[in-house]
């Protein structure tokens, strides 16, 4: 059974600092990995999808890396802003479903 | 283009009551999913539908039933609600269930259900 872990569970940084969010998974036989953002009381917004054959994916200030062999992904958010405050979830795709981590809740202090 | 929509947004039930959560997508996706999200846990798959006319159990199907009404709509029914079913329910869809490395799931805004 795929287990997805996100550490730390919560993170607080001053505005302007770079954010580093970690995701680890136990089964490397994945098809892709998605990073989502969730605002309080809201649904999930897809940020980045990394295909299993890719090492990284970039979108604006966001960069996600994937190391399948070691079962790790890292989401980097450059020059954080208060608007980046949210919970970030990673999910890995197996044969038919996504397996989710519990998320990292980020607070960016102005 | 609304994406994935869910109704209702909020619901309070008493133990033993029944209700149906509705989900619809307008992206012409074949596959649809129901997840629940509980504090401190990741989303867990309840049921999924690979394509119109098919449904399958996920990780936590007990106490739930589903109906894939047509290609657009996928409903989740609680026949006899229990306090353990208090949760946030999310519907999602994707182009297909295929073993594609680019098979992104899109999520609805969620239904917040409380069972007293």
Key attributes of the depicted protein:
heterodimer, A: 110 residues, mainly beta, 6-stranded mixed sheet, 5-stranded antiparallel sheet, 11 strands, B: 116 residues, 7-stranded mixed sheet, 4-stranded antiparallel sheet, globular
Task: Summarize this entry quickly.
The complex is a heterodimer of chains A (about 110) and B (about 120). Chain A is mainly beta and about 110 residues long. Helix content of chain A is about 0%, strand content about 60%.
Question: What does the model show?
Answer:
The complex is a heterodimer of chains A (110) and B (116). Chain A is mainly beta. Chain A has no helices and 11 strands. Chain A has strands at 4-7, 10-14, 19-25, 32-38, 44-51, 56-59, 62-67, 72-77, 86-93, 98-100, 104-109. By secondary structure, chain B is mostly beta strands. Chain B starts with a strand and ends with a strand. Chain B is globular and about 40 Å long. The mean pLDDT of chain B is 92. Chain B has strands at 4-7, 10-13, 19-25, 31-37, 44-49, 56-57, 64-68, 74-78, 87-94, 106-107, 111-115. In chain B, the strands form 2 sheets. In chain B, strands 2, 4, 5, 6, 9, 10 and 11 form a 7-stranded mixed β-sheet that branches. The chains are: A mainly beta (110), B mainly beta (116). The interface between A and B is medium-sized, with 27 and 27 residues.
Low-confidence stretches of chain A: none
Q: What would the principal axes of the Cα set say about the shape of chain B?
A: globular
Instruction: List the uncertain runs of chain B.
Output: none
Quaternary state, please?
heterodimer
| Radius of gyration of chain B, in angstroms, nearest whole number | 13 Å
The tally of strands of chain B reads 11
Helical/strand content category of chain A: mainly beta
Rounded average pLDDT of chain A: 94
Percent of residues in helices of chain A:
under 10%
Largest interface: A-B, 27 and 27 residues
Biggest beta sheet summary of chain B: 7 strands, mixed
Q: How does the overall form of chain A come out from the CA principal axes?
A: globular
């Amino acid at each position: 059974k795929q287990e997805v872990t996100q550490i730390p569970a919560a993170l607080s940084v001053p505005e302007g600092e770079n954010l580093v969010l970690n995701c680890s998974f136990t089964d490397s036989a994945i098809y892709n990995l998605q990073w989502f953002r969730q605002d309080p009381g809201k649904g999930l917004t897809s940020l980045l999808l990394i295909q299993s054959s890719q090492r990284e994916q970039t979108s604006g200030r966001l960069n996600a890396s994937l190391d399948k062999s070691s079962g790790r992904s890292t989401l980097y958010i450059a020059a954080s802003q208060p608007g980046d405050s949210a919970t970030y979830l990673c999910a890995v795709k197996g044969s038919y479903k996504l397996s989710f981590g519990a998320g990292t809740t980020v607070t960016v202090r102005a | 283009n609304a994406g994935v929509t869910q109704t209702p947004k909020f619901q309070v039930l008493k133990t033993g009551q029944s209700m149906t959560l509705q989900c619809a997508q307008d992206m012409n996706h074949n596959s649809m999913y129901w997840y629940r999200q509980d504090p401190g846990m990741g989303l867990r798959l309840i049921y999924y539908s690979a394509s119109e006319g098919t449904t399958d159990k996920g990780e936590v199907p007990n106490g739930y039933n589903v109906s894939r009404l047509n290609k657009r709509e996928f409903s989740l029914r609680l026949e006899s609600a229990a306090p353990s079913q208090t949760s946030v329910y999310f519907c999602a869809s994707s182009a297909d269930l295929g073993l594609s490395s680019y098979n992104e799931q899109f999520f609805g805004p969620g239904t917040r259900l409380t069972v007293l």
